[in-house]
Amino acid sequence: METRVNIAIIGCGYIGEKRARTLGEHELIVACDLDLNKALKIGKMVDYNIHVTNDWKQAIDIVKVELVIISTTNDCLVPIALYAVEKGKHILIEKPAARSAKELKGLMDVVERKNIKAKVGFNLRYHPALIKAKEIIGLKFMGELMFIRGRYGHGGRVGYEKEWRFNPEISGGGELIDQGVHLIDLARWFLGEFSKVEGSLHTYFWDIKEDDNSFLNLQTKDGKIAWLHASCTEWKNMFSLEIYGKMGKIQIDGLGGSYGIETLTYYQMTEKMGKPKQNSWIFDKDDSWQKEFDNFIRLIEDDQPVLNESLNDAYEALKIVDKLYENE
Fold first, then answer.
1. pLDDT in tens, 232-261
2. Do 132 and 71 share a structural domain?
3. What is the rounded CA–CA span in Å between residue 183 and residue 164?
4. Are 135 and 276 in a shared domain?
5. What pTM was estimated for this model as a whole?
6. Would you call 113 helix, strand, or coil by DSSP?
């Protein structure tokens, strides 16, 4: 593949726009959305002419397209991805990648057979505070990790209950599969696989059948626990992740923008215990979308084996989502 990658974006809403703004040196050659005005809007963002269409098959069929970014509603993610893979195109598919683990497994099998590179858009892993947390943990000063507390939420908006996110035929569920899947992915990233999955899903406020709050208790074989809460009755957008080791703690708050200033505070236990040593970092730039895309491009250019770990991460997260929905 040439250094300069030719890209199609399928789904030109809020996330599609974010992707279009973070393509770096690579070239967007087609924008596609059922609402042609959204595709035209993205077309106007670049300083050269691109193909604009509301037919996603037509967009993928363009010979020059090498990479397809899929940022549609959840029900369309796998069908579009399957078509793109069969056409020999690499894919970046937004989280949760499918409505269920079973649905995603079918795509994984085809990706492996076709020797295609695929990535799922879990951009929170690329936020500067999360990258810094990984760095600190890697230095081993915190000791063995014990547990995680995570909260992620927003307050919706007028008419939120009528949006596609609460139509299970389209979304696959409610708040759990929307924001909750991000928390599950981060918890797995830090603690590993979970052998015990428990939780409680509730509908407290919105006039919907699906969950607007999900409370999770996930446990690894060696007893590490992730205590997670995803909510769309938070009213003030918030993100909080606390990672506890035997000798220290990392606290991450905010993601920038409406979620507040992104900060990381590291507390290091002293020999005498008592008040810990403390260091804080403030991050004023969210370049997670760019970092995630650049990471994927390197995977493609380096022609690494088709492990597609990102697809497997989404698959494992969705297995947890499926189990919690099945138990309700």
1. 999 999 999 999 999 999 999 999 999 999
2. no
3. 21
4. yes
5. 0.95
6. helix
